[in-house]
Amino acid sequence: MANIQQSYGAPLAAARSEVAKKQASTQRLRRAYILALAVIACLSCATYIMLDRLISNQSVAATTINMAGRQSMLSQRVAGLAQAIAASRALQNRSGDLIHLQRQQNAFFSAVRLMKESHVNLVEGNKVRGTPGIQDEKEREFYFDEPHQIDAKVRAFLALAEKVKTAADPDQARSIANELSDMARVDLLTSLNAVADYDEARAHAHSTHVQTVHLAILIATLLLLMGEGIFIFRPLERSLQRNEKEVAEAREQLLHESLHDALTGLGNRQALRREIELRQKCGSIHAMSVIALDLDRFKTFNDVVGHPQGDRLLVDFANILRNSLRDGDVAIRMGGDEFVILAHTEDYAREIELLCKRIAERFAQRPTSSDAEPCVTASFGIAAWPVGGDFSQAYAEADCALYEAKRLGRANAVVFEASMRAALQRENEREQEIAAALNENRFAPHFQPQLDMRTGRVIGVEALARMTGADGTVQAPSYFLATAERTGQIVALGKSIISQAIAQAGEWHGNAIEFGRLSVNVSVSQMLDDGFVTFLENKLQGADLPAEKLCIEVLESVLLDDDHNDIVDVATRIHALGIAIDLDDFGTGHTSIANVTRLHIDRIKIDRSFVANALEDERNRHVLTAVLSMGKAMGIDVLAEGIETDLQRRLLVELGCRQGQGYHFAKPMSGCDLSDWLSRNSPAIGSIQETFGSVALRRSA
To answer: Given 256, 445, 523, 553, which is the most exposed site by the fewest CB atoms within 10 A?
Structure first.
């Protein structure tokens, strides 16, 4: 166990470290990007504020300059009106024109009032008119200090203007008017022009300063954008390019894994299906043969020398196939020690005979590791695949020929003949037997309990199909399942078993009999059948059984058979109802871990083949440990099938497997028998709660 953890721990730690580094780099880039955006936003706001202040200051300066100019004009107008009033008074004494004099006086007094208001606005400011008043000490000097003293001069000018009202005679009025004219043309004009020039210079200086700062901000923004492009976007682009490359490589790897057997590197069932479809679409199925072959006494070889040597033998045989085939020939591993070859043929009998002979001779000449190693040979079944013919028919004929080759003593190559059709006839008879059993409702579920091996608590029951023959013999799935799958009868058969199983579970649920969760087996054909999800939903409602009490089991090969996303879509809809999904016979289909998450798997069921030899075979124990560790890491429950002895149970518990199923606990039984069994055995099973010691993990001698 420690060795396993060490062997997986280092790569896992390295992978986690690499992921952490990538995440940290991404976080740094994200923070830098956000900071750069914040700085650019601040610079933009600063630019806006400075431009706004520049416009405001320019407006204030313009207002101040205009009002200073207005003061000059008003002083000139007051002086001019005073001259006119003096002249009108002189004329009045002669002509008596009072109306004209009154108009001039009104205009004079209005100009004086406006000049007084304008002076107050210049000195004290007026928010309504937008004049700020005196803004700095220098401007204050213009109004109150030598040499200009604008405030004093304006007040003196206005006071002198008031005397026009009280002038005793035209001569005095003329004298006052002349004095006003002199003040307006010389003192006031000079001083007001000086303050206007100052305001204009100050506004220009402020504008120049703002423009300089604005240029600096613009340059800083451009530099920041350049830095963002160099230090953020360029690394980000490279990171994206690396990610795209990694994704593309991962996609290619996943595609390769989905089409190739993990052990031998040959094509798998999915690759075979694609090859058939491609050849049919291209019209290239003329002059072809289908060769079904497997290894004789391979099971004995495994039992004697162990599974690792068996795997090496399969790899060696796959290499021999690969090196023996001609261009255009394709070798497929169907599973275990079963292989298929699609071979081009022109001289059918001679070419295929030579190909099979070449493979058999090279396999016989392979080096062996021990003289005590059992002799393993290869048997071949050959059938023609005619133009436009059905591949499944050709493969069935090749399989019949392979059966005949083994019957003749193995290590033979047999070409299918019409006399071998008896086997196919038996297959057809079995198909009819299945159809009759369906029509007569002779299929029924038997139930096998699933337990928590630490507490003995029943956590579920699996519904297993049984067929009662016309003579009353009860047949297990091995008798009818393959035929039902091939003929499509599996859909009706599956619906019958699922309907009865859900009805039985609904009865248990209604009677408060605790059975955990009902598991039913579902094939690819059933999952892809239209209305399957609706069928499940209706059956659950009819039995008044909560969806959480149902689980469907799919074989690992389902993941390999689905070259589209149909099964994933169905699984998603099933999950939406609250129904769980188990992956059955895990470890036999060479699927990738990604497929486990793709199908929303809730529990993995370890194939019984790994459990059967776990005590004697260290490699099987390593597989069990790896699967259990994977399930724990992914948050997926793991159940071991085929537990037949207490030693196996103890070993699995020690390895960390809590859930189990097998003959050690109970054989499959009818619903009525299981009801009694649940009543007798709940909550604990015998001595399953006993404290157990360490199981010796030694290879059998």
So the answer is: 256
Q: Is 385 helix (H, G, I), strand (E, B) or coil?
A: strand
377 phi and psi angles, rounded to 5 deg: -125, 180
Check 187, 337, 582, 585 and give the catalytic one.
337
CA dihedral 685, 690, 694, 696 (to 10 degrees): -40
Backbone φ and ψ for 273, nearest 5 degrees, come out as -60, -40
Structure confidence at residue 349 (pLDDT): 63
DSSP 268: -
Residue for token pair 């009108």: 88
pTM reported for the whole predicted model:
0.46
CA distances from 260 to 269, 326, 376 (A): 9, 19, 24
Residue 591 near residue 563, CB atoms below 8 Å: no
Angle of helix 532-543 versus helix 490-510 axis, rounded to 10: 30
Place of tokens 């290619």: 252
545 has pLDDT over 90 = yes
Per-residue pLDDT tens digits for 209-236 = 877 887 888 888 888 788 777 877 777 7
Given strand 338-344, what is the order of strands in its sheet? 330-335, 338-344, 288-296, 377-385, 413-415
Which residue in 467, 383, 401, 464 sits closest to 431, CA to CA? 467
Q: What is the DSSP string of 20-48?
A: HHHHHHHHHHHHHHHHHHHHHHHHHHHHH
Helix (H, G, I), strand (E, B) or coil at 338: strand
The answer to whether residue 171 is catalytic is no
- In the chain, the N- to C-terminal Cα span, in Å, equals 21
User: Phi and psi at residue 586, in whole multiples of 5°?
Assistant: -65, 140
Q: With CA atoms as reference, report the closest residue to 405 among 483, 353, 336, 342.
A: 353
Question: Tokens 């369906």 label which residue?
Answer: 438
pLDDT in tens, 55-96: 766 666 677 777 777 777 777 777 777 777 777 766 655 555
Q: Is 205 helix (H, G, I), strand (E, B) or coil?
A: helix
Strand pairing category for 659-660 and 637-640? parallel
Phi, psi (degrees; rounded to nearest 5) at 606? -70, 130
Cis previous bond, 683, omega within 30: yes
Q: What is the rounded CA–CA span in Å between residue 53 and residue 168?
A: 54
Indicate the angle between helix axes 150-166 and 189-228, nearest 10 degrees.
Answer: 140
